[in-house]
Amino acid sequence: MSSSEATSHIDAVEERRKSQQLEAAAEISAEIDTWKEKSEIAKELKTQSVEEKRSKAHAFLEDAAAGHARAQLHDAIRESETRFEYKSHQLKSDLAQDRRASHIELVKEKQKTLQGKKHSSQDTIVDEI
User: Fold this and answer.
1) Angle (nearest 5°) at CA 76 between 74 and 79
2) How many angstroms separate the CA atoms of 85 and 92, rounded?
3) Alpha-carbon distance 70 to 66, whole Å?
4) Residue 55 CB neighbours (<10 A)
5) CB-based contact 32:40 (threshold 8 Å)
6) Three-state SS sequence of 27-69
7) How much is the pTM?
8) Which residues contact 1 (CB under 8 A, 6 or more apart)?
9) Is 104:97 a contact under the CB 8 Å cutoff?
10) pLDDT by residue (tens digit) across 110-122?
11) Percent helix, percent strand, percent coil in the chain, to nearest 5
């Protein structure tokens, strides 16, 4: 091998080494890009997952609040119905007492009227004798 052949061989080897280094660098760069993409996708999925969980939690809290409000409403309705029934019973009782008292007054008035007629008829009988 002559010196020009040796130089050309060395140049060819160096050229091949540079080419291999460039290919390796390109592969490494491509791998880094792939990992960056995977990392971005993972971050995006994590963000979506967090947002979904947050959304579900808010929906659960809203449902719980609505359920609590419904329960309070039902309690208020039941309490109102109970008060209404109590008032209704109380009014019926008062009405019955008023009717009884009115009836008693009517009976007393009739008794007085009858007693008055009885006395006046006795007076007339006595006067006739």
Assistant:
1) 110
2) 10
3) 6
4) 10
5) no
6) HHHHHHHHHHHHHHHHHHHHHHHHHHHHHHHHHHHHHHHHHHH
7) 0.42
8) 9
9) no
10) 888 888 776 665 5
11) 100, 0, 0
